[in-house]
Amino acid sequence: MSLEQFISKAVSPWLKEDGPDSDIVLSSRIRLARNFDQIPFPIIADKSELEKVLDFFGQEYQHQSFKAYEDLELVQMRDLKPIEKRVLVEKHLISPHLAESNGESAALISKSEQVSLMINEEDHIRIQLYLPGFQLERALQQAFEFDDWLEEKINYAFDEQRGYLTSCPTNVGTGMRASVMMHIPALALTQQINRMIPAISQLGLVARGIYGEGSEALGNIFQISNQITLGKSEWDIVEDLQSVVQQLIERERKARQSLMDQTGLQLEDRIFRSYGILEHSRIIESKEAAKCLSDVRLGIDLGYLKNISNTILNELTILTQPGFLQQYAKKTLSPDERDELRASLIRERLDLEK
To answer: Residue 180, annotated ligand binder?
Structure first.
């Protein structure tokens, strides 16, 4: 696998697979923060110490495989153009924070893009493992197995009382962030989500936009994750998150049914209007595209729209982002040029479904 392949396809191979409750939960993610025991953490390490970490991963893991995670490719941030970094952020393979780095940092990415390791971000290692649909427990088990494989060669910074030691105190303990990406348009349309987000926060969880902290929930896609990492085991954290997500799934399904029962014709009209906009627009901004894509995905899930792939939301959400549009065009685009290309790519993608 090469960098060109990572940035040339909008949808990671694993995202094309169906998972449990995938009509609402797009993906499940486990992220583990880890640090080397005898090397200063990235926030205080000097260049030579960060290079030591980077060289270690290049020597030990470049093109290695572990179980289904084949051909791990080391992608160094200093070798990437700004647009290439942005594409990797849009595909959730790296964080915006890592993308801002031009020095001794990198990502180790599996061929399927199901696993990516961010190296010398806020911590020496941030393991990310994704599964399609609602599969938090399975994702955690697989993340543990991958973490154990790394630990065969790495001594982690660990304290018997505090757990895994990290640069940010909020990650000390398990060092884990468990999250799910949810498409919950009915809760948004009925405005129930406005009451639920504060309630979620009181349970030690947080609801964010599609790209995590500080991002906007475009297209009614929310990332729900844990905030607490200390004082609970990884399994307890996942169990708490699963319980809340299951309630959100049930409420979203009830809200969808309620919309069909009470406003069926208006809902159908909204869905087909959005489909029409996507099918015929010559210019479309990102927010309008996200809103219309959300409506179309809802229409697919409710059976209003036939013979259209249910992965279209995943694909076009990434395909229409600024970084991917410019990578596709092979040049920097103005906002107006991006809006024109976005509309063109959406029309082309929808034509493939006919």
So the answer is: yes
- What per-residue confidence (pLDDT) applies to 3? 57
Segment (H or E) for 292: helix 286-302
| CA distance linking residue 33 with residue 120, whole number of Å | 11
Q: Is 86 annotated as belonging to a binding site?
A: no
Torsion (CA) 138, 7, 60, 66 in degrees, nearest 10? 30
Ranking 162-171, 262-271, 336-345 by mean pLDDT, the lowest is: 162-171
Secondary-structure percent of the chain, ordered helix, strand, coil, rounded to 5: 50, 15, 35
CA atoms within 13 A on the CB side of 265: 0
Examine the pLDDT at 41 and tell me if it is beyond 70.
yes
Q: How many C-beta neighbours within 10 Å does residue 227 have?
A: 13
At 42-67, the pLDDT tens digits run 999 999 999 999 999 999 999 999 99
Three-class SS string for 160-177?
Answer: CCCEECCCCHHHCECCEE
Residue 64 confidence (pLDDT): 95
Residue 208 among known ligand-binding residues: yes
Question: 25-34 and 221-226: which strand pairing?
Answer: unpaired
**Residue 186 known to bind ligand:** no
Residue 209 in marked binding region: yes
Q: For residue 27, say whether it is annotated as part of any ligand binding site.
A: yes
Q: Is 125 annotated as a binding residue?
A: no
Q: Was 303 annotated as part of a binding site?
A: no
* Collapsed DSSP state (helix, strand, coil) of residue 342: helix
pLDDT, tens digit, 9 for 90 and up, residues 214-237: 556 678 999 999 988 778 899 999
**92 belongs to an annotated ligand binding site:** yes
Four-point Cα dihedral 228, 234, 239, 244, nearest 10: 30
Q: 164 labelled as ligand-binding?
A: no
pTM for the predicted model, two decimal places: 0.91
**Is position 210 annotated in a ligand binding site?**
yes
What pLDDT is attached to residue 54?
96
Is 211 known as a binding-site position? Answer: yes
Which token pair is 274?
A: 């959005």
Residue 177 known to bind ligand: yes
173 is annotated as contributing to ligand binding: no
User: pLDDT of 71-90, one tens digit each?
Assistant: 999 999 999 999 999 999 99
Helix (H) or strand (E) holding 33: strand 25-34
